[in-house]
Structure formats: C-alpha cells, structure tokens
C-alpha cells in the first residue's frame, strides 16, 4: 500500500468524520473504527524493517592440550633401483616386439624392430654410390701414375699431369664422402632394431607392434640389477626429517608382518603439477622376496612437528587462500582465525598452529557464518 494512497484515504476519512459530527455518531461508528485501523497500518509497516535475524546456535569442540602428532603413512610401490627407458633413435612403425612385461633378457638381445624399407633402400643406394666412387678413385689413381711415368720422357704436357692429379684428388674426396654416407646408412638401419643394452627384466611396455612411434619415445623399460627402491609421494618436501632419512619403515600392504627398512635416495626437486606432491625414492635394505617389483607397500614416516590438535574436517574454512576456522570469542561472536594444518585424514584435519587449549572451534555450518557474527554456543562435541 503506497504512501500517497494512505494520505488520500486519511483526508477522506477526516472529511467523513466532520460530516458525522453533524449527524448521529452511532451511524458512523463502523467508519470510525476503520479510520483507526487505517491510521495504525503505516506504523505497522515501518516497524517491519527493524526486525533482526535470530542468533544462530552452533555446535563446537573445545581444543584440548596439544598432543604429539602421530606417524604418517604413505602408500608406495616397489621399483627397480636402476631402470632404463628403451626407445628407438628414429621414428617409424613397429613391426615386431618379442618381449613382454616380466621377461628376462640378455645383453645384446633383439627386443623390437621398426619397418626398415626406407632405411634399407638408403643403405643400398649408399652402397652403390660407394662402389662407384671406389672404382672412380682407382681409375684416377692409375691414370695419375701413368702420367707421372710419361712426364720425364716429354710425351705429355705438364698440364696433363696436373689435370690427372686433380682428377685423382676429386675422386679420393668423393670416395671418402661415399664411405661416410655408407656408414650413416648402416647406422640408420641399425636404429630400426631395439637391442637390450644389458641383462635385466622388462618391467614396462609402452608400445606394441603396429604402433607408430617417434624417435626417443618410450617403448620398453628395463630393470637391471637386483637392488630395489620404494617410490611414494609426500605433501611437503620436508616431511622426512634429516635424522630419519636413513631408517624409513616399509611394510607389505597385503601382509604388514613383512617389513624392511629403507634409506632415502632422493626427493624430486619440484612438485607434480597435477597432484601438487613430491615424488620420493628410498632404497630398500635387504628386502624380503615378497617385496617384488610392483608390490604395494606402506611407508611409515615420523611426525614433522612435536604437537598438534585434531579437529573435524567440517570445521575448516578459508581466509583468502589460507586455511582458517571459526572460534567463539568471549563476546560470543564467531571469529575467523587462520590456522596451520599439518596434514589431513579422511574425516579430520590436524592443526599444528593457530589454536590454543580452551579455544571453542565451531564444527558445523561454517560456510554460512560471517566473521564477527553473534552466535550461541550449542552442543559441545567430545
């Protein structure tokens, strides 16, 4: 109902009220009551905008005393200590591949071949060119020798000897060039054959017969030697303290009673762009036979810090790009506080900084809260 309409209605009622005073007021009693209601309507509408939202009741957990962070566990896989990626030095279509995963091979063994028609034709052409250059060089050498014998007798001119010597030099240069081309053609043909550089086991196959590959593209991976590594990923490059790098505990995932120790070998210098984790390799020391290549294992890492607090994962929020939680302050307000997570589990987050014992951390509905919003402390989770 607009203000202009109410004002017009009030003026009309005033006029009717003046008329009613000249008549019996009982006839206009209903009209009088209606005017009172109309005068009260604007007041009701004005008060409607001043209503406030009810204070939210929140669930929370009280931060207890700091506890030693538990050891971290990461799932890894057993790899060969020495792995060699085998590839062709030239591109082409794979014709044969004579080995598969798990096969043991010997040094010098033929593993795969490329289609070699073009390379063979190049070799044949280079061979023919070499034979022609060789014959031409022999003829030029004989001619030069003959001219050198005739020159003292005066049977030929000096220019004829010079021409014979120049022809011989040209023929010799052509022969050397043909020899180089022949060696290159033989080498190119050899590049169509993938040979095992040393004895070992095939642990990965990346291409099959009929597939077209480029030069340098991985075809097979060869594991050499008997040493084995465990490979796993970590969230931070400093997750392994220096004093613990020589004695990581490794257990078989399918049978935790099968254990071995491992010494840190290396940590990748940069994080994986997809997972944002760092790849770690550690060398197993006297590994049991059950920890074969490809076996899944559990690597136990020591804690990276002395203390921490466990909170439900639902309590975590953010301030910009930093993790944060809502804490109920003494004024019963939800205060957003930046925290430092140590690591995460499936249902909880371990906080290593930003909280103190006794803090009341809100654990539910944090996405709907605003920093500084009044709240009522409801159910306390244990």
Supply the helix-strand structural class.
alpha+beta
Number of helices: 4
Question: Strand order of the main beta sheet, please?
Answer: 15-16-17-21-1-20
> What is the mean pLDDT?
83
Give the CA-CA distance, first to last residue: 53 Å
General description of the model:
- The chain is α+β, with helices and mostly antiparallel strands.
- Among the domains are: 3-48; 58-69 and 306-381, conserved putative lor/sdh protein from methanococcus maripaludis s2 fold; 116-191, Helix Hairpins.
- Helices cover 28% and strands 35% of the residues.
- It contains 4 helices and 21 strands.
- A 6-stranded mixed beta sheet has the order 15-16-17-21-1-20, with no helix packed on it. Strands 2-9-12-11-10-13 form a 6-stranded antiparallel barrel. Strands 6-5-3-8 form a 4-stranded antiparallel beta sheet, with no helix packed on it.
- Helix 1 (3-22) runs antiparallel to helix 2.
- 20% of the residues are buried.
- Residues 36-49 have low confidence and may be disordered.
């Amino acid at each position: 109902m607009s203000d202009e309409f109410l004002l017009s209605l009030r003026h009309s009622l005033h006029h009717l009220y003046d008329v009613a005073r000249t008549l019996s007021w009982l006839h206009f009693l209903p009209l009088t009551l209606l005017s009172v209601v109309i005068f009260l309507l604007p007041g009701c509408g004005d008060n409607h905008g001043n209503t406030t939202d009810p204070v939210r009741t929140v669930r929370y957990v009280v931060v207890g005393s700091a506890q030693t962070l538990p050891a971290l566990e990461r799932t890894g896989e057993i790899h060969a200590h020495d792995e060699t990626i085998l590839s062709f030095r030239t591109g082409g279509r794979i014709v044969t591949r004579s080995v598969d995963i798990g096969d043991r091979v010997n040094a010098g063994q033929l593993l795969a071949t490329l289609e070699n028609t073009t390379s063979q034709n190049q070799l044949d052409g280079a061979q023919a060119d070499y034979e022609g250059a060789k014959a031409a060089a022999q003829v030029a050498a004989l001619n030069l020798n003959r001219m050198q014998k005739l020159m003292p007798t005066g049977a030929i001119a000096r220019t004829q000897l010079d021409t014979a010597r120049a022809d011989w030099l040209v023929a010799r240069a052509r022969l050397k060039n043909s020899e180089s081309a022949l060696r290159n053609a033989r080498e190119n043909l050899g590049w169509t054959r993938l040979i095992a550089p040393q004895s070992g086991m095939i642990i990965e196959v990346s291409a099959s017969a009929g597939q077209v590959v480029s030069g340098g593209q991985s075809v097979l991976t060869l594991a050499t030697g008997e040493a084995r590594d465990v490979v796993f990923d970590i969230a931070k490059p400093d997750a392994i303290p220096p004093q613990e790098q020589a004695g990581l505990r490794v257990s078989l995932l399918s049978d935790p009673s099968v254990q071995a120790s491992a010494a840190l070998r290396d940590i990748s210098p940069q994080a994986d762009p997809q997972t944002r984790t760092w790849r770690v390799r550690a060398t197993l020391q006297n590994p049991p036979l059950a920890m074969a290549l490809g076996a899944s294992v559990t690597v136990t890492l020591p804690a990276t810090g002395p203390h921490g607090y466990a909170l439900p994962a639902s309590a975590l929020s953010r301030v910009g790009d930093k993790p944060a939680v809502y804490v109920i302050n003494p004024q019963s307000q939800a205060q957003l506080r930046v925290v430092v997570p140590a690591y995460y589990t499936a249902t909880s987050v371990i906080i290593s900084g930003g909280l103190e014992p006794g803090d009341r951390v809100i654990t539910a509905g944090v996405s709907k809260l605003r920093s500084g919003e009044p709240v009522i402390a409801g159910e306390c989770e244990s």
